[in-house]
Specification:
Radius of gyration: 23 Å
Helix content: 40-55%
Strand content: 5-15%
Number of strands: 10
Shape: globular
Number of helices: 22
Length: about 450
């Protein structure tokens, strides 16, 4: 017998066997996976295999069977009666302490974006005097995200590398990626896979900013009622085209009832486990319990394939701190923004990608008429680019799925006869043709999920 205590937010999946369950596919769980891109709660492809839940202590037999599981942590909302400055000081002290402990004397490898999470880390690493190699990547033919990242690196005196995600890389990497993430996430999301060999050439440990944008923002919109939480969650987690794919799979597998009822009941069951009255805090807890470990964390293994990883926002102490900070202080990224402004104003004055062309000092002006000149100029640039026959790339699937060569590779998986024994070819054909002829943006997720299931099925038959 062995005991495993899991952290509040899991970085890896630990699989265990369940006594009394047959080794059969869990078709209902797979439908949820298809709709949202992640498996829910402790489910897997198989009924007799589960993953350990976050924040639990688990007793496991040597043969791998789960004997007992009990929680050691419960998400709560018990805010202190304190000022914003007090909350900011608590956040700053905890954030810097965790990063200092995680990095120590090692070289930090920092993926930089134009957002707030990695920018906050850059400020902390600079303030703590750490040695940092930073990098960023952009899509070939897309927005040059590294232009913002490079400015942040320059004012922090970090070494910087700019990478470009190439087209067609997926088909050479798909076997390796499937081995890394075990087909628990679709394959176009971890774009770092396209530059994995370059990342391996770096030295140090990753400092990753995952989940900062969830912990340090409002969990839900103001005024949302408890009775509306189920539909609110669905709007957040169901991908475009995901509901249509899940319904078609459900019908083709002749499952009892209907998918929509199963989705609603499952969501309500999971929400009922969270004893928090404040709906914003409850949504944040829901995301951290079910979304973070089964979606965000899955592709952390890609980074681990290059170097060890550290995640300041995943630290148990950070989660415990969030439970005690008033929602009014967490909302709208206020703590992160103010932390950057007070500790490195020069970094704060660099463009915030979500608020282009404004920065942390003046983003409140990102409304008409102040933002009209930029919006008009940006639109004209894109129109001109398309007229010149240069498509503006915004998403990785555009580089991996579109074009004759990509289509041949994709179809070799989607129309594999063994896969069509699992997923009816009519389901595949219907959704794939809609992707090709109707709305590629809307149907890119169904196609990505079908590809994921096809690769999983091929590996399962080997």
């Amino acid at each position: 017998m062995r005991s495993i205590k899991t952290p509040i937010i899991l970085t890896t999946q630990t699989f265990v066997k369940i006594k009394g369950e047959s080794h059969e596919l869990d078709y209902e769980a797979i439908c949820l996976f298809a709709a949202t891109g992640f498996f829910w709660d402790d489910s897997t492809y198989w009924k007799d295999t589960k993953v350990l839940r976050p924040g639990t202590i688990n007793e496991i037999e040597e043969e791998g069977f789960l004997v007992k599981s009990k929680p050691w942590f419960q998400w709560t909302y018990e805010p202190k009666n304190q000022s914003f400055d007090s909350s900011l000081q608590e956040y700053q002290d905890m954030f810097e302490q965790i990063i200092d402990e995680q990095i120590g004397n090692q070289q930090a490898i920092l993926p930089l974006s134009g957002g707030l999470d990695s920018r906050s880390q850059a400020v902390a690493l600079h303030k703590l005097g750490k040695q940092v190699t930073s990098y960023s990547y952009s899509f070939q033919g897309g927005y040059k995200e590294h232009q913002i990242s490079q400015q942040i690196a320059k004012v922090c005196n970090f070494e910087f590398k700019a990478f470009e995600i190439p087209p067609h890389y997926l088909w050479e990497k798909i076997g390796e990626l499937a081995e890394i993430n075990q087909c628990y996430s679709e394959f176009t999301h971890p774009r770092q896979m396209g530059v994995l060999e370059e990342l391996k050439q770096m030295q140090g440990v990753f400092s990753l900013g995952h989940w900062g944008d969830v912990l340090f923002d409002k969990g839900g919109d103001e005024g949302i009622q408890d009775k509306d939480l189920v539909s609110y969650i669905h709007k957040k987690v169901i991908k475009k085209g995901g509901l249509e794919l899940a319904r078609e799979l459900w019908a083709s597998w002749n499952l009892e009832g209907d998918f929509d009822t199963y989705l609603k009941d499952t969501t309500q069951t999971l929400l009922n486990r969270i004893d928090i009255k404040n709906t914003s805090a409850k949504v944040r807890a829901f995301k951290s319990m079910y979304w973070a470990p089964r979606w965000t964390s899955i592709n952390l293994s890609v980074f681990e394939a290059a170097h060890p990883i550290t995640l300041p926002y995943y630290d148990d102490r950070m989660c415990q701190l969030v439970c005690k900070i008033p929602e009014s202080h967490l909302a709208d990224r206020q703590l992160q923004i103010e932390y950057i402004k007070r500790n490195h104003p020069e970094v704060a004055r660099i463009t915030w990608q979500d608020q282009k062309p404004f920065n942390l000092m003046n983003f409140h002006k990102n409304i008409a008429p102040y933002n009209l000149p930029y919006r008009i100029t940006d639109k004209l640039k894109r129109v001109l680019q398309e007229k010149l026959g240069k498509k503006f790339i915004q998403r990785n699937w555009e580089l991996q799925f579109l074009g004759e060569d990509n289509e041949k590779q994709l179809e070799s998986y989607l129309y594999d006869k063994d896969f069509n024994n699992l997923v009816d070819s009519q389901v595949v054909n219907n959704l794939y043709r809609k992707f090709q002829t109707q709305d590629p943006v809307f149907y890119s997720h169904p196609v990505s999920m079908l590809l994921t299931l096809a690769v999983w099925n091929r590996r399962n038959l080997e």
